[in-house]
TrEMBL record:
It comes from Turnera subulata. GO terms for cellular component: Golgi apparatus. The keyword rRNA-binding does not apply. One of its GO terms (biological process) is rhamnogalacturonan II biosynthetic process. The gene is MGP4_4. GO terms for molecular function: UDP-xylosyltransferase activity. This is UDP-D-xylose:L-fucose alpha-1,3-D-xylosyltransferase mgp4.
Length: 333
């Protein structure tokens, strides 16, 4: 079966200088079972779409309260793959911006928005039925804004659970932040058949032919994909004491999981020229010029503040919502 997951770390307007990681997980074994799964899912999709498109007034809002992660994943998954992001209401403009770029690569139908509050759940589903889900209880969004607080940890650790749940349902998952813009199709870069593909967040310049092995095991973020070994990985993660206590955010959790399972899980570091951290892309024009044409995902990180992120995207022509919001499945917000 396949699973793909994409992680997008919590994005708080106030806390994002060094956040971000991406964790896609793919699974390429079991193609046969994947095929049979797709046959079954094809039917589910059809059924799900008809039932969703009928509704859309306020009376339908209560329906979204009961929409489950499992229903949502089966609704959006294509080829066994789901692209996941977590979004709280202040980040809707970034979600819209990112969705425009994802739509240009024709991957928007696989996007599942994990809403961190009911306003986000309702607004996204009103505009784009079935693409948002909220896994209760809704976290306290005020608490979530204090970086390092218990509320913040509660939210970030939730992401890890959601991710694992989707993997356990049998999907490949690509996790994505929404302060990103896709310039190309990242799926084309998932070479070979590794368990996990990820991008790191290290601004130091690597040679173009850098190794795809696990680098120094301290900081990453990344997208990943996985095989059935994922199951093992999940067990390993769940066995970690920090996973239960939720005292650590998901980035730390994934870094830990990658380290703990080094040797058991086949990981692949995506090429830096295609997946640069914002700490490199927005800071070194020489490098950007040298690697022109190779960039696939631009991450607006290594900067603090919602307005500053928007300004930086605008300065680089990446704030697409100004002129292209008609290309987003959400339309004009
Ligand atoms: C965080 O989660 C714990 C355990 O579920 C809960 O007791 C606590 O109230 C939560 N704190 C906040 C601020 O959300
Ligand atoms: C990258 O290229 C350089 C110069 O051609 C070579 O010396 C080095 O071994 C290569 N590194 C890898 C990881 O292939
Ligand atoms: C910027 O990129 C160029 C080209 O790759 C590199 O030679 C230079 O050292 C980089 N500058 C900094 C400050 O990292």
């Amino acid at each position: 079966m396949s699973q793909s997951l994409q992680q997008r770390p919590l994005h708080n307007p106030r806390s994002s200088s060094n956040s971000h990681r991406h964790i896609p997980i793919f699974n390429r074994t079991g193609l046969l079972s994947l095929l049979s799964l797709l046959l079954i899912l094809g039917v589910v999709f059809l059924w799900a779409r008809t039932s969703f498109s009928r509704s859309s007034s306020s009376s339908s809002l209560s329906k979204w309260r009961h929409y489950t992660l499992s229903e949502a994943a089966s609704f959006v998954a294509k080829d066994g793959t789901v692209i996941v992001c977590s979004v709280s209401h202040p980040w809707l403009p970034f979600l819209n911006n990112w969705l425009i770029s994802v739509s240009r690569q024709r991957h928007q139908e696989k996007v599942l928005v994990i809403a961190e509050d009911y306003a986000t759940l309702f607004e996204v589903n009103e505009r784009w039925p079935g693409h948002a889900v909220l896994v209760p209880p809704a976290p306290d969004s005020q608490a979530a804004h204090d970086f390092g607080s218990q509320g913040f940890f509660n939210i970030t650790s939730r992401r890890a659970w959601h991710l694992l749940q989707i993997l356990e349902l049998g999907y490949n998952v690509m996790l994505s932040d929404v302060d990103m813009v896709w310039l190309g199709d990242p799926f084309a870069y998932l070479e070979g058949s590794h368990d996990v593909y990820f991008m790191d967040d290290i601004p130091a310049i690597k040679p173009l032919n850098h190794s795809h092995d696990l680098p120094h095991p301290t900081r990453y973020m990344g997208g990943l994909t996985s095989k059935l070994v994922m199951k093992k990985w999940i067990e390993e993660i769940e066995a970690q004491p920090w996973f239960k206590t939720a005292q650590i955010n998901d980035q730390t959790a994934f870094n830990w999981a990658l380290m703990k399972t080094a040797g058991q899980v086949d990981v692949y570091l995506l090429p830096q020229a295609a997946f640069p951290t914002g700490g490199l892309y927005f800071e070194n024009k020489t490098w950007v010029e040298e690697t022109k044409g190779k960039h696939v995902i631009i991450h607006n990180n290594w900067i603090v503040g919602f307005e500053r992120k928007i300004k930086r995207f605008r300065d680089y022509g990446l704030w697409l919502v100004d002129d292209h919001d008609n290309e987003s499945p959400l339309g004009k917000l």
